[in-house]
């Protein structure tokens, strides 16, 4: 329920006679202006001025009151925020005040060369004379106002409610305003300022407190929490707890009631698009496409294979034909015959035939003949008959043959040994696996734990080694080019080589060169060689073990996720997922704040203002009253009027009554009433006051102002009962 | 609403009073300076003025509420000076960045102010 600004320009300015006063309620939050005798002010707007620059022309314009957010398109408001003419509740910046008055009179429809109406304007209690005289000067000099009267807003409100029978002629006005709160006692319908008191806390502080708390609680939505919005939130949701401690305890305990009392402000939030799992058809379609592609690839491979087989067969035929021809050719004619085929000898052709045969078999997918041969050879030891024969019994050809046989034998034996070793290793692994399986079955938990620990250890060791090797290098350690620029880091091995090279270079230079005298010196070159870089004997073992354990863990532990390589070779497809904003993330929760913020009116200590709160102010005010008449005090407390914007907070009356009952003696009459309209009553009271026939006597003219001087203005005090 | 620059009902226009392009110093006083210039000490002490109608400090003990949650706060953190209601809030208090601590303290005018 925000206040609506009323700023339509009035068109009936002419019909009011110059004797009709203009009434202004110059509140720190709202400026209200209208004609005396009317029930409502004509124009209401927020008492602020903004002076932004036009974005294109750079011209400074003056915007008074609430502005249309649409205007921001054209104006740059970043340099100048909204400004108020008020410091606390005193007008101190008269340039801003002038803009506001300009706007107020303009909206009233003022025409002519000056404002030819008496003006009644409100001010704060005990306004410093500097502010008062400046205001008078402004009105007289700039606007040509014939006469002025100053009055206190709370007093006008009290008088208005007194006329409507809400409160008596003796009573108290409690007026929590925008930046200050006052308690003013009234005796016989006249304010007794002797007994009044002021606490510098008001609606502004409530809103500001709420704004700060909410923006501290929801730092992401700080931009949403504008002053205007928070003001609206305050008016809509804040209430005054009958007992703060009790209410806070209730909230601390939580429960259904608290849930009901907590308010949520849902900011605009768009649910993230939900990804639907692909439908059956989609899956089927994709599978079909894949199948078709596979089929095509297979067909292509098949065609390639058959063409190759064809080719090879042709070549084989050709070669065989050549061999047949060769048999018919005489021994001497062979070279000339072969010269145009590209082969040198018959043996070469034969070997080519063998080769083609082998590739043909391979192409056809037949098993290697060699293996069969090997099997056959393994049993027959008589394949190398020449080996055991002493050299001196052999002809040179046989010697050559013997060498070949020895070579063949050693290679086959070596192959056999390797095979044997592989087989044994296989057996070993099998045994190990079995053992582990047994251990696992014995105590699965413990086993899993051990595996994990082992995995972690190994992983760390491998990582450590990798780090050492690369040592922060930018190329992941495989800087094959070896061209390392200045300032670039080398890995450990490269650094060692550098060191060796430099020391070697130094050795050359001095005295007698003894390098090479000892055999160890030559070791240096081995160390320097680049091939030396990767000595990974230990590392290899660790890495294979790591791979084994991680695969094993993957088998038996569903929760296991192998750690990623620290530097993945290609950017992985999955980007770190951002948690999508949920509905709750875009909610501003207003729970305890609902009554915590208005509590500052009763407990200004909460925001560091060391003054009494509203309820205690009544006690202070009564104590300050000049006469200690118990009867009068009782009369005052039985007619307590609440006025001012903050009185609209629900629970204010009850809380005030409870608070005042605590400081008054038992059995004292206490009655707290709320003004008819806590916001507009001040203006209405002033309007009634200004329309009275005796009002002109309460005003002073420009002549008075300049003749009587500032001292007189200090003591200026209107009579409220006319 | 944008204000027109020339208003017929004014005897002295804004642009005459504050000519454009002319540097002018601060032509206004803060409330503190206004009050100082009022020289209230030269007047009898029982005469009313803006300053002496102010309310005195409260007689009640200051209510201590948790800076974060607003609940009753039996404890206060010696490191940050924030008041807190329970262990849970304490954890939060200790995890707050200093910036936030100072802003919470500033709410009750207890922040460290460097001058």
From TrEMBL, chain A:
- Keywords on record: Nucleus
Biological process (GO) annotations?
actin filament-based process
Output compositional bias ranges, type Basic and acidic residues. Answer: 363-377, 412-438
Signal sequence, start to end: none
What Pfam families does this protein map onto? Actin (PF00022)
Its predominant location is nucleus
Q: Which domain of life is it from?
A: Eukaryota
What is the protein named? Actin-related protein 5
Per the UniProt record, the source organism is: Rubroshorea leprosula
UniProtKB/TrEMBL annotation, chain B:
Q: Which UniProt keywords apply?
A: Nucleus, Transcription, Transcription regulation
What InterPro entries does its record include? INO80C/Ies6 (IPR029525), Vps72/YL1_C (IPR013272)
The answer to whether keyword Transcription regulation applies is yes
GO CC, sorted alphabetically, is: Ino80 complex
Q: Pfam families in the record, alphabetically? A: YL1_C
Q: Where in the cell is it found?
A: Nucleus
BP term (GO), one:
chromatin remodeling
Which ranges carry the Vps72/YL1 C-terminal domain? Answer: 64-93
Recorded hits in PANTHER family, A to Z, give: INO80 COMPLEX SUBUNIT C (PTHR31200)
**Protein name according to UniProt:** Vps72/YL1 C-terminal domain-containing protein
């Amino acid at each position: 329920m925000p206040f609506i600004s009323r700023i339509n320009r009035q068109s009936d300015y002419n019909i009011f006679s110059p004797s009709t006063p203009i009434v202004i309620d110059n509140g720190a939050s709202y400026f209200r202006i209208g004609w005396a005798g009317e029930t409502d002010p004509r124009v209401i707007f927020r008492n602020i001025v903004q002076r932004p620059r036009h974005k294109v022309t750079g011209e400074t314009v003056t915007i008074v009151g609430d502005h249309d957010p649409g205007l921001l398109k054209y104006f740059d408001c970043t340099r100048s925020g909204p400004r108020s003419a008020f410091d606390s509740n005193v007008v101190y910046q008269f340039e801003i005040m002038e803009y506001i008055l300009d706007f107020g009179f303009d909206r009233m429809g003022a025409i002519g060369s000056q404002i030819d109406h008496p003006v009644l304007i409100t001010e704060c209690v005990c306004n410093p004379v500097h502010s008062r005289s400046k205001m008078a000067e402004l009105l007289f000099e700039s606007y040509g106002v014939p006469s002025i009267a100053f009055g206190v807003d709370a007093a006008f409100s009290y008088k208005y409610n007194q006329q409507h029978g809400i409160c008596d002629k003796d009573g108290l006005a409690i007026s929590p305003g925008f930046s200050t709160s006052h308690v003013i006692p009234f005796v016989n319908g006249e304010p007794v300022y002797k007994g009044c008191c002021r606490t510098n806390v008001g609606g502004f502080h409530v809103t500001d407190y709420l704004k700060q708390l909410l923006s501290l609680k929801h730092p992401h939505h700080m931009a949403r929490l504008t002053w205007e919005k928070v003001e609206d939130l305050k008016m809509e949701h804040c209430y005054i707890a009958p007992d703060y401690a009790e209410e806070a305890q209730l909230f601390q305990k939580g429960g259904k009631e608290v849930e009901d009392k907590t308010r949520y402000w849902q900011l605009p939030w768009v649910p993230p698009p939900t990804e639907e799992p692909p439908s059956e058809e989609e899956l089927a379609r994709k599978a079909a496409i894949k199948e078709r592609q596979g089929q095509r690839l297979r067909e292509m491979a098949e065609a390639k294979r058959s063409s190759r087989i064809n080719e090879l067969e042709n070549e084989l035929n050709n070669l065989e034909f050549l061999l047949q021809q060769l048999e018919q050719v005489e021994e001497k004619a062979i070279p000339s015959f072969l010269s145009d085929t590209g082969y040198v000898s018959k043996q070469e052709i034969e070997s080519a035939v063998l080769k083609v045969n082998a590739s043909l078999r391979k192409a056809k997918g037949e098993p290697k003949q060699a293996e069969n041969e090997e099997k056959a050879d393994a049993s027959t030891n008589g394949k190398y008959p020449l080996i055991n024969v002493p050299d001196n019994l052999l002809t040179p050809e046989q010697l050559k043959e013997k060498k070949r046989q020895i070579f063949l034998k050693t290679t086959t034996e070596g192959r056999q040994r390797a095979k044997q070793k592989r087989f044994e290793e296989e057996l070993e692994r099998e045994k190990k696996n079995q053992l582990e399986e047994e251990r696992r079955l014995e105590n699965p938990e413990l086993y899993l734990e051990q595996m994990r620990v082992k995995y972690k250890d190994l992983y760390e060791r491998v990582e450590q080694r990798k780090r050492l090797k690369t040592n922060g290098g930018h190329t992941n350690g495989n800087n094959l080019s070896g061209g390392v620029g200045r300032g670039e880091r080398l890995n450990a091995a490269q650094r060692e080589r550098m060191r060796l090279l430099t020391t070697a270079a130094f050795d050359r230079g001095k005295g007698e060169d003894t390098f090479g005298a000892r055999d160890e010196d030559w070791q240096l070159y081995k160390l320097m060689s680049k091939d030396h870089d990767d000595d990974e004997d230990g590392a290899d073992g660790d890495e294979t073990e790591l791979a084994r354990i991680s695969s094993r863990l993957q088998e038996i532990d569903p929760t296991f996720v192998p750690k990623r390589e620290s530097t993945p070779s290609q950017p992985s497809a999955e980007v770190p997922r951002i948690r999508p904003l949920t509905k709750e993330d875009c909610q501003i929760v207003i729970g305890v704040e609902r009554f915590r913020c208005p509590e500052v009116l009763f407990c200004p200590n909460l925001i560091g203002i060391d003054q009494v709160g509203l309820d205690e102010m009544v006690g202070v005010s009564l104590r300050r009253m000049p006469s200690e008449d118990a009867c009068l005090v009782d009369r005052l407390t039985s007619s307590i009027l609440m006025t001012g914007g903050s009185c609209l907070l629900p629970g204010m009356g009850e809380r005030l009554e409870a608070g005042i009952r605590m400081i008054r003696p038992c059995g004292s009459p206490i009655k707290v009433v709320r003004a008819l309209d806590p916001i507009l009553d001040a203006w209405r009271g002033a309007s009634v006051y200004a329309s009275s026939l005796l009002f002109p006597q309460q005003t002073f003219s420009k002549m008075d102002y300049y003749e009587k001087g500032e001292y007189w203005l200090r003591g200026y005090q209107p009579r409220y009962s006319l | 609403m944008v204000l027109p620059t020339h208003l017929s009902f004014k005897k002295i226009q804004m642009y005459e009073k504050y000519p454009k392009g002319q540097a002018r110093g601060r032509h206004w006083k803060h409330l503190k300076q206004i009050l100082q210039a009022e020289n209230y000490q030269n007047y009898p002490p029982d005469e009313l003025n803006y300053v002496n109608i102010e309310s005195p400090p409260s007689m009640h003990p200051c209510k201590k509420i948790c800076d974060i949650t607003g609940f009753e706060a039996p404890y206060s953190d010696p490191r940050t000076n924030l008041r807190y209601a329970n262990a849970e809030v304490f954890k939060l208090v200790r995890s707050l960045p200093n910036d936030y601590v100072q802003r919470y303290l500033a709410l009750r005018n207890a922040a460290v102010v460097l001058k």
